[in-house]
Design a protein that fits this description.
The complex is a heterodimer of chains A (433) and B (590). Chain A has eleven helices and 23 strands. Chain A is α/β, with parallel strands linked by helices and 433 residues long. In chain B, strands 8, 18, 19, 20, 21, 22, 23, 24, 25 and 26 form a ten-stranded mixed β-sheet that branches. The chains are: A alpha/beta (433), B alpha+beta (590).
Amino acid sequence: MKKVYSRIESITGNVIAVKAEDVAYGELAEVRTRFGASLAEVIRLSDDLVSLQVFAGGRGISTGDEVRFLGHPMKVSFSDSLMGRIFDGAGEPRDKGPTLDENLITIGGPSVNPAKRIIPKEMIRTGIPMIDLFNTLVKSQKLPIFSVSGEPYNELLARIAMQAEVDIIVLGGMGLKYDDYLSFKDALESGGAMSKTIMFVHTASDPVVECLMVPDISLAVAERFALKGKSVLVLLTDMTNFSDAMKEIAITQEQVPSNRGYPGDLYSQLASRYEKAVDFEGSGSITILAVTTMPGDDVTHPVPDNTGYITEGQFYLKNGRIEPFGSLSRLKQMVNGKTRSDHRAIMDGMIKLYAAYKDTLEKKSMGFQMSAWDGKLLRYGEKFEKGMMDLSVNIPLEQALDRGWEILADCFEPQETGLQTKLIDQYWPKKTA
Amino acid sequence: MTATKGRVTGVNGNMVTAQVDGPVYMNEVAYIENQGRSLKSEIIRVRGDSVQLQVFELTKGIKVDDPVSFSGELLAVELGPGLLGQIYDGLQNPLPEVAEKTGYFLEPGVYLEALPRKTRWAFTPVAKAGDTVRRADTLGTVPEGSFTHRIMVPFNLYGDLTVKSVAKAGEYEVTDQVAELVDAEGVVHKVTMLFQWPVKRAVDCYAERLKPTEPMVTHVRLIDTFFPVAKGGTYCIPGPFGAGKTVLQQITSRHADVDIVIIAACGERAGEVVETLKEFPELLDPRTGRSLMERTIIVCNTSSMPVAAREASVYTAVTMAEYYRQMGLDVLLLADSTSRWAQAMREMSGRLEEIPGEEAFPAYLESVIASFYERAGIVRLADGSTGSVTVGGTVSPAGGNFEEPVTQATLKVVGAFHGLSRERSDARKYPAIHPLDSWSKYSGIIAHEIVAYAHGFLFRGSEVGQMMKVVGEEGTSLDDFAVYLKGELLDAVYLQQNSFDPVDAAVSPERQKRVFGLVLTVLGTAFRLKDKDEARSYFNRVRQLFIDLNGAEWNTPRFAEVESALKAAVAERSEGLDPVAARHIETLER
C-alpha cells in the first residue's frame, strides 16, 4: 500500500508540493482537505519534491492535509454504461447516476501512427445546408467553429449533435455557463439523442484544473469507441477556455509566456488534442467539431490562429449564420464528387452569385443606380439567406440541392447562372404552366 | 553503451534531469529505463554531475531514481542503400514497420532499424586492394531504383586509408562486410554498406562548395520565371494558414527537376502526410517512368508526435539529403514547417529556463536557422562530379504577420522568398505567391532584365488599380487603363496556374519561354482601342485565348492553332511594338 504524506511543503495557486518517494511523473494523488477529497496530478519531479496540481484548486488546503498517491495516472472508466451519462472534468458523475470504476483506461495516450491512417472518404450528414452542401463535414475531420461571444454556437453544436449521422456523441464542455450546460442537456434529452451521448462538462464555476482534463477524457473515451468500430463525433466547447486555463496554470507555474501570456507549447498542446481525429483503417473514426471563440472577433489572436494551422478548415459563425466566405472544409473535395452530379456545380455557382449579390448590396448602399441584373441578384440574395443560410433550415442534402435549383430558377434565366448546360438540362425545374 | 551510469533526479514536461557518475558528451544519446522500456533522449545541458535530457517520448510514468544509461554516440542516422521510398519518423524509425509491431499507436520506447537488413544488394566493386582512399571515396556501387548508389568510405574514417580487400561482385546484405581498410596507424576497419553519421554535423566530404547558378526547375511558372530557385540554393515559403503552403510543397515534390526529394513533415497535420504517402506510390515520375515513391523519402514527425523528436526531424532529413548529394545527385529537401521546428526549440528553451528572446524564442534562434539552411549547397566532389542539396522551408508566421522572429531569421539566410498572401488565396489566385512582395537572388530560365520588363507592368498595373479604387474608372486615362489590364492579364494567364489541369499543372522551361514571349508581345504592343469597354472586352478575349493555350498540350496542332489565333488577335489591333519588348522577344527566341 502506498504511503500517506501529511506535510505539504508549499502551496502556490492550484499547485502544491510534497516530499515523497517513488512517485511517477503524471501519477494521480488524492488530497484530503476539510472540504472533502480532491484528485491531484503530478506535474513536476525534482529530487524528492513532488509538485501536484490539485483539481479542486488550492483554496483552503492546509499544510497539514493528507496526500495519498494512487500509483496510476489519470484514468477514466470505459464501458457501454457511459452512454447517456454526464460527468465533470475529473470524471465524477454530475448526474444522479452511480460512480463508474470498472475497466479504467489511461487518458492522453500516444499519437496514432501516420502509416495507419487512411484518406478520409465519407461525409457526415448534419441536415444543415451550409455544412452539407457548401462545406461538407467529413468523417475523421477536425473543424473549429470560429465565433464570438453571443453567437448561438452552443445551439449549433446541440443541433449537430442531434442530427449528425454518427453512432456516438461525446460532448466536452469547458468553462460552460451553467445555463448553457442545462440547455445542452435539455436539448439533447428532448431531441432523443441523449441515449447515444456522453457528456464531460466543466462549468465556469468549477476548478480550473478540471477544465484541462475535459478534452483528454472526452477523446480517450471516443478513441476506445472508435477502436470498437463506432463512428464517434466529439464536440468541444469552448477551446478558448481550455487555452486560457492552460495559460493560467502556466503563469502560476512561472513559465516563460510566448504570445499574449499563452505558454510556448500552445500549438503542440492544441495539436495533440485535435490530431486525435482519425479514421482507423478497418475500424471506426473520430470527428472533432470544436468551438473557438475569438476574443474581440480577432482571428489573429493566438488561440484561433494556432487552431487554424492545425485544423482542416473552419466554420465562421457570424450574425447567427455560417458565413459562406471565411468558412472552409479542406476535406470537402474528397466526398462531394460522390454525392450527386450537381453538388460541386451548385456549391460553386451559388456562392459566386452570392458574392455578386454582396457587391450589388454595396453598390446599393452607396446609392448607385440598380440595373435589372442587380434586381435579380437582390432577389436571389434574399432567398439564399432565407432558404439556405438560416440556421433553422433543416433539410437533407438532396433536398437542399433541389431547393438550390428552385431558388436559381426563381431568380435567373438558365444561362445567367454560369452552370454547365448538361446539368441545367438535367436539373432545371420545369415550369408548370 | 559507456560505463557512465546515471539516475533520474527530476522530471519537468519532456525534460528530465539526471545525476551521472562519469564522463558524458554534450548531445549524447541516453536511455531512461522505465517500466521495462528504454526511452531515448539527448543530453542538452551539463552542469557538474547533473545533466539535462530532452526525452523523445512522452515522459508519463518516469520516476526519480530510474536508471539512465549513455550510448557514447551523438544522435545519428543510418546511411546506406534502402533509404529511398521509406517513411520515417523524426528519429528514423520506419513507420510502416513500427505499425506492424505496435498497431495503430506509436508506443513509447519502440525503436527499429532504419534500413531493411534482409534486402540483398547487387554489389559491384570499384576500388581495388592497394588503393589509397579517403572518406566518401567510392568503394563499390549497388543499383537502388534508377540510381547507382555509391558504397562509400564511411564519412567518420578520417585520414588516408589503404584498401586491404574489397568484396567480389555479388549480392550482399547491408551489414555484410564489403571492404577492409587500413588506416595510418595500421588499424583495420571492416566496412559494411551501412554506417552512422551524427545528424547535427554537416557532411563535409567535398572538394569545394560552388556558387548555385543552375536553375532548379519546378515547372511552376511563377517560380521558374519570376522567383527562381537554383540547385543548391535555399528558399522559404511563409504564409498564413490556408494560403496553400503545403499544396505548393506537394506540387514541387511531384514536379521538381531533381533526382531525389526528401519531405520533412515537421509538426504539421498527419492527414497531409497520409495523402502523400498513399498517392505517391501510384504516381509516375516523368523523368524515369517509375513510381514517384522510388525517388522520395518522407520524414514525418506530425504535430501530435513528441516535440523533441520534431526538433531532430529536420536534421535527420538534411543528413540523408547530404548523403545522396555525395553520390553526385541533386537532392531537394522540403521542410514543412520550420516554424514548428522553431517552436520545438522554444519549448525546450523555456523548460531550461533560458532567458527568452523575442516572442520567447531562444536567443540562438537565428544562428540555428542560419546553420540549418547553410547545409544546402552545390559541391564539387573529390571525383570531379557535382551534387547539390536544395532546401525549401515553409514558415507559418503567427497571425500571418511576416515581422515575427522565425520569418525574419529565415529571410536573412535564404536566396529566394516566396511570400504567400491571404488576399490572393481568398481570391482563389493560385499559387498564392505575392508577385510584388516576393524576391529571388538566383537567375532563372529567363534573363533577369526580360522578366523585369514584365514585372514592371505588374507593378504599374497594381498602382493604377489602387488609384482606380479612389477616382473610379471614369477618372483614369485610357492609357493607364490599358496598363492596368495588361498587368491583370499577366497575372491571370501566366502567374496563376491550375494545378488540377493535367497540362497546366507542370510547364516545361521551353514552353514557359515560348508563352512568355507571347505575353511580352501583348505587354509591349500599343493597341488601337476606342474606349474602356472595348479595351475590357478585347483583353477578355485575349485572356480566353491564353487560357486555351495553357490547356493545350505542347507541340500539338492544337497548340499551334491557338497560338496563331492569339497572334492574329494581337495583330488585328496593333499600333506597333515597343522596341525594348521587341529586343527581349528576339533574345528569348534565340
